[in-house]
């Protein structure tokens, strides 16, 4: 055992934490497991390295969105701090740290059943879980003063609490949901942003090829939910295989051709629910309220059959 005094420490708003281990990193941040020096309770801390004012504003927006959207199915921000100190080693101007609950093993919603052994979820249990995910998404779409979209919903961003409650994490891509695009410059800007922050196998068609004059709204998340439910059934998004082959995900998504395995334990109603969300034309795609209602209808039918 190493001496406790040699452990890396973090001060977040006068509260002292010990760094226990490195948990992972993404394109814009790192995540560490930390321990409260006073209570011994463990948390995750997301560290966002900022290389300028724009980065800092984006990171602080993430903190702001945590405050705007509070829901049992969305990860809670326990504390946050902006450290406004340049770091020449990292070529950074500042750092934002967000303290979050730590979910042991960070088990995602798909790995709840081992995909390696093709252990399918019970359909009723799966749809009950999916309803909880939808309720979390609804909280974004109902945000005040204006609706928000998560923009990076995927199975890796949905963790399971100890009681199997799904929790949506990573608010780094959250944005104002309804965007009016006027001109090719604005279209390219949004397309570049989506390319940077929205995972390809779960990204809505309208974000691959943003039209010069159009309206983008919260239904980008509905497409992602369709991909998530497909993955809950069959362990991968319908476009993961395309991505793994190295083929064009954009072409596959825009074509909207969704196929299901011939051998399946799931009723046709679940496939229809998935297709209900995976409409290529966003104007034909339902809003979250209709998705929740239709999911409840399918659940009722399955429970009657059971």
Strands, helices and their partners?
Elements: E1 9-12, E2 15-25, E3 29-36, E4 42-50, H1 53-68, E5 79-83, E6 94-101, H2 123-141, E7 148-149, E8 158-160, E9 166-168, E10 175-176, E11 179-182, H3 184-197, H4 205-208, E12 213-216, H5 220-234, H6 240-245, H7 249-255, H8 268-277, H9 288-305
Antiparallel strand pairs: 1-2, 2-3, 3-4, 4-6, 5-6, 7-10, 8-9, 11-12
Task: Please provide a written account of the structure.
- The protein has helices at residues 53-68, 123-141, 184-197, 205-208, 220-234, 240-245, 249-255, 268-277, 288-305, and strands at residues 9-12, 15-25, 29-36, 42-50, 79-83, 94-101, 148-149, 158-160, 166-168, 175-176, 179-182, 213-216.
- The chain is α+β, with helices and mostly antiparallel strands.
- It folds into two domains: 4-102, Phosphorylase Kinase, domain 1, CATH 3.30.200.20; 105-305, Transferase(Phosphotransferase) domain 1 (Transferase(Phosphotransferase), domain 1), CATH 1.10.510.10.
- A six-stranded antiparallel beta sheet has the order 1-2-3-4-6-5. A two-stranded antiparallel sheet has the order 7-10. Strands 8-9 form a two-stranded antiparallel sheet.
- Helix 2 (123-141) runs antiparallel to helix 5 (220-234), helix 2 (123-141) runs antiparallel to helix 9 (288-305) and helix 5 (220-234) runs antiparallel to helix 8 (268-277).
- The longest helix has 19 residues, at 123-141.
- The termini are far apart.
- The model has no long low-confidence stretch (mean pLDDT 91).
């Amino acid at each position: 055992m190493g001496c406790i005094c040699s452990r890396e420490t973090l001060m977040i708003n006068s509260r002292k934490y010990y760094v226990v281990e490195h948990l992972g990193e993404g394109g814009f941040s790192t995540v560490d497991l930390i321990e409260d020096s006073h209570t011994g309770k463990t948390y995750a801390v997301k560290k966002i390295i900022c290389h300028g004012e724009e980065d800092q504003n984006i990171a602080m927006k993430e903190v702001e969105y945590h405050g705007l959207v509070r829901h049992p199915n969305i990860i809670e921000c326990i504390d946050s701090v902006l450290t406004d100190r340049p770091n020449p080693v990292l070529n950074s101007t500042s750092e934002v740290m967000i303290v979050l609950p730590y979910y042991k093993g960070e088990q995602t919603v798909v790995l709840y059943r081992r995909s390696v052994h093709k252990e399918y979820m019970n359909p009723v249990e799966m749809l009950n879980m999916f309803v909880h995910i939808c309720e979390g998404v609804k909280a974004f779409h109902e945000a005040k003063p204006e609706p928000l979209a998560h923009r990076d919903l995927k199975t890796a961003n949905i963790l399971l609490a100890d009681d199997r409650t799904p929790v949506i994490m990573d608010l780094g891509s959250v944005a104002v949901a309804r965007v009016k695009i006027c001109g090719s410059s604005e279209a390219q800007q949004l397309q570049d942003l989506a390319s940077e922050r929205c995972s390809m196998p779960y990204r809505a068609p309208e974000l691959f090829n943003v039209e010069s004059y159009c309206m983008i709204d919260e239904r980008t998340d509905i497409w992602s939910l369709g991909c998530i439910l497909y993955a809950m059934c069959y362990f991968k998004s319908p476009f993961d295989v395309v991505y793994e082959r190295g083929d064009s995900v954009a072409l596959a998504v825009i074509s909207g051709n969704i196929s299901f395995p011939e051998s399946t334990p799931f009723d046709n109603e679940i496939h229809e629910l998935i297709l209900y969300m995976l409409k290529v034309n966003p104007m034909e795609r339902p809003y979250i309220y209709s998705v929740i209602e239709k999911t409840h209808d399918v659940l009722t039918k399955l429970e009657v059959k059971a």
